Here is the input.
Amino acid sequence: MLPGRGAHRFPGRGTGAPGWDTYDTQRHTTMRIAQDWSLTHDLRAAERHAWHR
Here is the structure.
């Protein structure tokens, strides 16, 4: 995708809200921006746990 091409599809465009819940350290929810946008919970859990050992 070219820079700026996805801006017109931003879920909350024009409202000031992104269209998904705020990030919190319990769920580690992340928006994956690709061909389709999707919420992912704890995407890098294995890496995060490795740092806490």
